[in-house]
Amino acid sequence: METTTALLGTTFVGGLVGVFAGRVPHGKYGINSRALTVGLMALLLSSRPLHLAGHASVWGLGLGLFSYTLACRSTLAAALTLWALPCFGFFLQSHSVLPVATELLGKPSRQTGQVHGSWDVPVRQSGIHRPDVLLITVDTLRADAALSMPSPGDWLVFDQAVSPAPWTSPSFYSLFTGLPVVAHGGGLPLGDQEYSKPLEGLPWLTEVIVGAGYETAAWTCNPHLVADAGFSRGFKHFVHSDSFFEPHLFHHSIQEWRHRFTGRVQRLRHERDQLLVEGARRWLSSPATKPRFTWVHLLAPHEYQRDLAVDMDGWKPGMEDLELLWRAYALNVAATEDRIRWLLEVVDFSDTVVVFTSDHGEAFGETGYRGHGKGRTDAELLVPLAMAGPGVEPGRVGGQVAVRDLAATILELLHIPRAMPGQNLMENERDAVAVGGLRWDPETFALRRAGGEYARTAPPAATGAPMVFSDDTLRNLGQLGYVESP
Ligand SMILES: [Zn+2]
């Protein structure tokens, strides 16, 4: 719809300028009043309420001026216009993308999650005040890599938090269902590059929270965490960063072209994380009539090896480059921490339960391999976990807890009397945590004992239906190396 508006706007204004430019006599200084009027119209259209039509018309104006200079038969003017257009494009790209995207994020209903009535809870009892919730997850963040944030003085920090699985999909299915992977059966390999959804009919954290009267919004850019895979369930606003650029046809093409030209794909990834945080900040700063549940997922630490490889002319880092890779990883983590601190500036901790965690860690050669999704190791399964806000006593917990217990814990903090699987992890440590859902081997399910040993267990008895991804999602997954690009 927005793309159509942009195209129509471009055609209309470009045509208008062309017609005016062709009809007027040349003034003394080559300036004519009607072309100026159209230019002013275009600038007016560029104002915030009409930014889509405005940006389109600015480009249309450029095209119109080009045809005007042709009509003047001035080679110099035509050459100058041809030179100025791409410069102007770069200017737009570098100065306008962020505010424009943020503007879009102010009304982010691009994908709306399904809310299933069966899990709604009639809990709008009088006298119960429910705080907001901000769930911040960072992809691929090892427990020992979150160096400076959060500080134990303000947060309840868990030293031994075990993620449910060593890669994204099964881990997040556990976070939202409160179940171990062996019970929800989601994110398991069904065949060549095909994974399962979780079993039908399981409760889903966001839907339960919506039933309690919450407004919900999510910002994510991991291609696994899409509506196709079920992650928009319960979210009224579900923004995936790949959708940011769609309405801005010209910005998008310039963006793509520039990144292809400079080879700096990583910058695009960072810019997406930045857009997510800007959107979430805007959402959290706006007035609300209902309590809010907000989920922000950042991806930059996942992409450190591509950063190195791309910046060094296609060179692929190997195991002998672990030190270099670790430094690249740490830089991405530090940039992500800065972004989170900036997001937290707008959070009222007295009325917001803030949760910070990751979906899995990353191995750096501990068991002879680098990456995640293959092994049962603490490098891949121990993640940072910290909480703050009403009902959370700052401090440190040394014992083993399961990240999947966040669902039950959050519901308890919000006084929502809806039983979801799991237990309050602020009060209960676990002797054993079920892990599994390995990408390459569904048979490698295990229990992690509190001491850190792993004992193999049986694989799940049942898995959910196959996930079916759109071509766009498959292309994005291909960029991350998860599947062959279509
Ligand atoms: Zn992940």
Structure description:
With 486 residues, the protein is an alpha/beta fold. It has two domains: 2-105, no CATH class; 117-479, Alkaline Phosphatase, subunit A (3-Layer(aba) Sandwich). The chain is built from 14 helices and 15 strands. The chain has helices at 2-23, 33-45, 51-72, 75-105, 168-177, 181-184, 205-211, 249-262, 265-285, 304-311, 322-344, 378-381, 406-413, 471-479; strands at residues 132-138, 156-162, 189-191, 194-195, 215-220, 237-240, 292-298, 352-358, 363-364, 370-371, 382-388, 395-402, 432-435, 446-449, 454-456. It has an eight-stranded mixed β-sheet with strand order 6-5-7-1-8-11-2-12, with helices on both faces. Strands 13-14-15 form a three-stranded antiparallel β-sheet, with no helix packed on it. A hairpin with a 4-residue loop joins β14 (446-449) and β15 (454-456). It is globular, with a radius of gyration of 25 Å. Bound molecules: zinc ion. Residues 139-140, 167-168, 359-360 line the site of zinc ion.
Entry keywords:
about 475 residues, alpha/beta, Alkaline Phosphatase, subunit A, eight-stranded mixed β-sheet, three-stranded antiparallel β-sheet, binds zinc ion
Mind summarizing the main beta sheet?
8 strands, mixed
CATH homologous superfamily caption of the largest domain? Alkaline Phosphatase, subunit A
Taken from the alpha-carbon principal axes, the silhouette is: globular
Percent in strands: 15-25%
Give the fraction of residues assigned to helices. 40-55%
Strand count: 15
**Rg, Å, rounded:** 25 Å
